[in-house]
Structure prediction request, 848 residues.
Amino acid sequence: MAPPSARRTINWSCLRGLCSAWRKVTTAILKDYWVKMGNRSDTAPVNPLSEIAISAILPCPGSSHESCPPQIFAPWLAELPVAQRDLLALLPVLDVNGAICTALNGGQAARPGVTAALLCVDPFLRVRDMAALLKAAGIGGVTNFPTVQVIDGVAALGFDSADLGAHREARMLARFAEEGLAVTGFATTAQNGQRLLDHGATALVVHPGPPSVDWRNRAIAARHAADTLQTLRPLCNVPLRLFCPDAYGAELDPARALADGLVRYA
Amino acid sequence: MENTLNQMLRKRSPGSGTLLIGGAIGVGMTAEAAVRGGADFLLALNAGRYRVMGAASLAALLPLSNANQFTDQFARREILDRVAVPVLFGASCFDPSTSPEMLVQQTCDVGYQGIANFPSSIHFDGRFRRLLEEADLGFAREARMLALARQAGLLTFGYAKTRTEIALLLDAGVAMICLNFGWNAGGVQAVAQSFTIAEAADRARRIFASIRSRAPDTLCFVEGGPIINPDDMFRVCNEASADGYVGGSTLDRVPLEISVTERTSAFKAFGLLKQANTAQSRELNRAARIAGIVGQSEFVLAVLEQVTRLAGTRIPALICGEPGLGRGALARALHPLSERSGPLVTLRAINPQAAPEAFLFGEAPRRQGVLAKPDATVVIENAEALPISVQRRLADWLEQGMLGVDGLARDTAGAAHGARLVLVCQTEPGRDTALIPALMQCLRAGRIEIPPLRERPEDVPALARHRLAMLGGGQQISADGYRLLLAHAWPGNIPELRAVIDRAALHSESEIIESIALSAAIGTGPSGDPANDDHAQHPRTERDWLLEALRRNRFRRGDTAAYLGVSRKTLYNKMRRMGLLE
Prediction:
């Protein structure tokens, strides 16, 4: 029979070993769960280009480029609840372009490098008037955000058939380019991206689509976004960014690694 | 709302023979017109408003405004309390800040008699639709709103596309269910279709049978997709035993497009007629009268100006164009216009008995040719048929005349007293004349090209009016008739137009020649021989024309409408007016 001191030593050693093993297992499980819940992992890639913020407020005209990152100006975001804004931005609950006009007619002025988020399939949008308003406010670029490309299925065919689909978006952006505005194109597929490039887009943002509450659907969308980035990469020599809606987490990491930069809500 | 619903249920009772018609509209004028036409109820929808603003109905799904505020605004101002039928509010459930309870309460407070789920999630599918349902902004929310509306005593109208959606509407106890076949075909802004008429009828039949097995009092409606006219509606409603039809684009956009286009075209035609009195100068009018030229197009004015200028000179002329444009008359008109004292001599080169060389240049030493006659005008018709040797000799003669070595007598200014040469040539589309280059070179300055009628349709009304004036019956052509004449290509040029006007005038019983008579006359073709016309071959009244056209097309209305050059709706209306539908 071993002396009491020896018995104590063996018990402590076992306990330490068990604790260490338990800590490793629980950490791995929690980390996996954390990632699956849509959170970003600690090994997320770093992109070479600075992040673009989508914001409802314009930075003050005097602020320097260093203090304020590049921005997409979307004043209509202020009208939407954060949790559903990716979906609601494409539904008849607000006037996207009207909100921009109201904000800019109210005297807001932008610094260079700000891009206006427009509903390009608006059948009542007059490019010449909108371009004049944007230029007067100091805004030098436009983008098709929200994009009708996130509507899929038979509905998308209907939009295309009524000339309210992706082709119209590209055409309208081309007309803004003719008016001297820089065009950033949001694209959900490589085909849409290629079309936007053909119509004068000088930067592309791959859109993974509005986030689902189901992480498996998000993972599928994220994989599709990565595929789109990979397909577009050899086809274009313009900055290729990735839009990261809030609810997406580590599922987007592979796509993030392929992008030159990110676009996020402010 | 029980009374309203009961009234509608009585209307659909067997033997009433009446289909309920709902108008999905977005502007006061359309609302009142639809009610005058017999609409049983109206749906105030944002899509209706966007249509009259010039966009497709699909714009109703886009973030162009808050749909509920947008619809409520125009409905209150233009529709509510102005019509004697129930008005249902098209309510959007997409806005999370407005709960179904709030929507129903607001609808009651404003004074709408009912509510419908529009714009609806039924128009989305795939991933986007799944996301809507996940966010509780989809169809379940719409069905909840309709259930609440029923409890609040509102008339409930549910749009649905699938059996799952219909099951939810039945659970909600919705009074009227509308099976939607997608956005409407037809018109300028037609949307690609998923269903044919036959498929739509079959689908509606099966779905309505299942609805009635579960809720017999539910009123079943059809809407959209391939149904674009009353015939289509009748076919689908008849086969599916539907209680009614809801028209949107088919009640406003499509008829408005057709009507505005036709009326504008008719006004345009009259405007062109008026221009004829003011645009031509007196001198040009004289030239036109002598040459027998009718029309006020830029082409005609240019030709008349050229003729007037040429008349004052001795430059030889070449008049080219397709057959049936009055080239010969124009060539001969140059003689009186130029006030030459000599004779007008015409040579038809195509005549096999003609000996053109001897006729033109004479037979030395005894006979002088016509070209040597002082102050004469020599017109050679079908000059392309002249032998090459004669063409060469003519070219030499013209060239010598230019050089003053032709041996003819001259005045003190050096101008020759000999004949003036006018050649008339036939051209085919896309091809030049068959004259030799040397002759063409000599005639280049005096060349007049008469364009075919298809290139100057604005001359058609004037020509038609001129022809009617010559016939002397005091008849006139209707505005729609002018539209039809303007739309025809007139491959046979002026003779074809004259024949059509003659036939239409002969068979038209009234003083106004309607489009249907002209259409039938055009359909007979330029080859039709009026001498062989008899009553059996050419019916006399408009009703007869219509019947004849229907027979020719085996009573297929679509083909008949196309054959007559009218819309299916116009044909349908005419058939109804003449009692051909019974």
Observations:
- Chain B is about 45% helix and 15% strand.
- Confidence is low (pLDDT under 50) at residues 525-539 of chain B.
